[in-house]
Structures are given as structure tokens and as C-alpha cells.
Predict the structure.
Amino acid sequence: YVPNTSLEYDPGINMDVFALGLIFLGISTVVGSANFIVTLLRCRAPGMSVNRLPILVWGTLTASAANLLAVPAVSLACAMLWLDRRYGTHFFEMSGGGQPLLWQHLFWIFGHPWVYALVLPAMGIVSDALPVFCRRPLVGYTLVAISTVATMVLGFGVWVHHMFATGLPVMSLAFFSAASFVIAVPSAIGVFAWIATIWTGKPQFTTPFLFFAGFILLFVIGGVSGFMTASVALDWQLTDTYFVVAHLHYVLLGINVFPVIGGIHYWFPKMSGRMLDERLGKWTFWVMFIGFNAAFFPMHISGLMGMPRRIYTYPSGMGLGWLNLLSSVGAFVFAAGALLFLINVAKSLRAGAVAGDNPWDAPTLEWATTSPPPVYNFATIPQIASRYPLWEDRLKESEERSVVGDAAPDGMVLDRGKETIGVTLLDAEPNVVLKMPGDSILPFLLSVGMMLLFFGMLAQVIWLMVFGLVCEIVILAVWLTPQPHVAEERVEVYE
């Protein structure tokens, strides 16, 4: 936080590397997010309308849209910090009329939506894969999709709950406290949908299911501890204590890592053609689950007992020794579980059981091709008629049937170079064949030019800054020059 990051307290280049590095990474994040948004909106399979999108796609789309708004805020803060340090501006310097608190506002306008940008795709993994092991569709699909978007929208209105102890006006505290309580509603919709899916289904206690079920418990614990800090009076007692450390690890580590590892177990056969060892996978889950809770749950208690964060030691008479020892042991146990996972991956890649095309009897599109899939995914473009194309005969939700894989020998074939189908925004009706640019070294050269620009800014070498900027402009101009073969129209009737 400023002013600790000002030139007076840190005269080296450490903070400059931090500030410029975050701007550099922010550019890649924004560009990558824009790529995700365009791809998910315009390059879906024909028939995959917005009410048939996997929840993982909803989560990725929502998180990508949030990045377009959140990342520029922290990039702006870092640019202002760098200008304060190197050119004597006073954005954060009180001696020049600046406001140190402005840094916190800009950082947390990014920071809290970013938490949801991390969590929503992980929640999407659970929403899409959990029904496979419950042998039924996700309960409340529409509500879960809406709650995904609502969580992200509300996430932009709660950043001040990180700043309740900074002396802000009482009215603003009341508003952001209420918003922080309200955001629990869409999150709870997801929890109830997952529990209802398990309750009304026939759960199979495989390794992926265990990770997803464990995630639900961790999500509830992390959510409740966050819900508690939405209360201004309670937050004043908990701010900068280990209670907050416990909360952030449950929401950033627990409810991200467990769905991702469960998702890797689920999609590993599709990626590699081999199964992960089930027995070793269950050992991985239990060791990681026990280790995680042993490491981070005691921090709630130590925080309530007054242990401050960001301080490397603590008085011996506070009764915190056994709690911190338990946390340390739990961290090593959790790391042992992660090591078991890596061993399982290495072992299974070399000698795992052959998976087959659809070992889980999963219903979604990716399981309609071979494992691992060919580089072109599908020889003919699939036509989607439901949310669960491979369970249509079982569910009998309508008379329409998806046409996928071998069932579509007469479907559209894109065999003229790098092409993909373009669809309408809502109904995913095919309306254009998009020609993709060929391989090019220009993106790499663009990143090199940007690196030179930022190195020049870091070292305060004017000629290097100018050279890097000129390289950027020239390479962008060449890259964006229209290419005739890409602009060619391909007009065909899709039937």
C-alpha cells in the first residue's frame, strides 16, 4: 500500500518492476479476455443457444467481461504509482494534495471482482461435471446461469468492504455492507442447486465427485466467513487479523483448487486417453482435504483471539502456539496431497488404463469424439439440440436430436484452410464461415517491442522507450493490414 511504496521508503527498482509488470500482464489479460468473449459469443456449435451453454462457459464469459472492466483499474493505479515515483506527480502523495486512500479504491475495484473472476469458472466446472456423477441434469440450470452473471455484476459493488476501517462516511459503509450481504444470494443459489442435484440423483463416489463435494463444503465455510465480515461492527474487530487470512484462503485456494483438480480427474481421459488411478486419486482427495482444513480452519480461531496478519511473530502468552503449529502441520499435509496428485498424473500418463471415448458416460459435446480428440475435433460440424446432447435418448426432453460425430456424415465440412463457423448471438444459427489468419511471427514481435518499451520505462532510458513504442506502432500497422485471403467470403447453404 502507498505511501510505503513511495520512493522515500523503497528507493530501488522493486516497486517499479511490480507496477510496470502488472501493467504488462494486465494488457495480456484484457486481450485474452476479449478473445474469450468473441469466441464464446460467435464461434459456438450451431444450435448451442444461450440457454444451452455449459455453466463453465457462462462462468468464463462472465469472468472475461469482468476483466475488461476490473484490470484497467489496477493498471491505472500502477501507472499512477510509477509516475509518482519517477516523475514526481502527486496522485498518492498527501504533501502534494494527493490521496493515499485512492490507491485502495483503485486496487479493490479490481481486487474484489477479480476474486469472482477466479471463482466463477471453477464453479462452472462443478456445475457441468457434478451432474455426470449424479446421473441426472443439473437442478435449476437457468437460475444457476443467471446467478453466475448476477454474482459478477454485484461483485463490482462491494469493494469498499475491504476498507471499512479506513474512516469512510457512515452512509457509504451502510450501502456497501448491504451490498456485501446481498451478494450471498446468487452464491447460495449455486450451493442449493449442487446439493439438490446430489440429493435427487444417484451419486457415484468417484474421485472427481469427492473433489466437487468437498468444494461445496469449503465454499460454504468461505462464504460464511465472508458474510460475517460484511457486518461493519464485526469487520472492525476482524480487519487485519488471521480470520481474514483464513477467509481468503478458503475462497482463493480451497474453492479454486478443489474444482480444478476434480476437473482434471474428470477431463484427464479426454486429454490423454488414459484414466488416472482411482485409488490414488481418493488418497489425494482425503490428504488434501484434511490438510487444507487443518491448515486454514484454525486461523479463524486465532484471528478471533486477536492474532494480527502481516506480522512475522506473536507473543508467547496469547495461547496461539498450538493453533499455529496445527496450521503448519496441515500445510505440509496439504502439500503431500498435491505431491500425490502429481505422482498420479505422471504414473497414469505412462501406464494408466486406456480410457475409451466416454468412460464417464458424460452427456456433453466433448465426449462425442475420441480420447484424445483429433486436432480438428470433429470432421463435420455438430448440430446441437439440447444441453445434454449425449443423454437425449435417455432424458427424452423433446423430439429434437443433436447431430454429432459419426451421426453427421453429411454435415458441413470446413476443409479450406483455417476456418470456423460463425453463429448468431442468441440462437447460435450459423450465418458465416470465418477464415482465420495463418501462423505469424508478428504477435511475438509485438510482445518483444512491448518488452523493450517497458524495459526502457523501468531503466529510464528514453531512446529505448521511443524505439519500443515505434516498434509497437509499426508491427501493429503491419499486423492489422487487411489480408485478401482472410477477407474472402465463403457463401454456402448450411442444411
The longest helix spans residues 100-134. The chain has a mean pLDDT of 91. The beta strands are 419-423, 430-435.
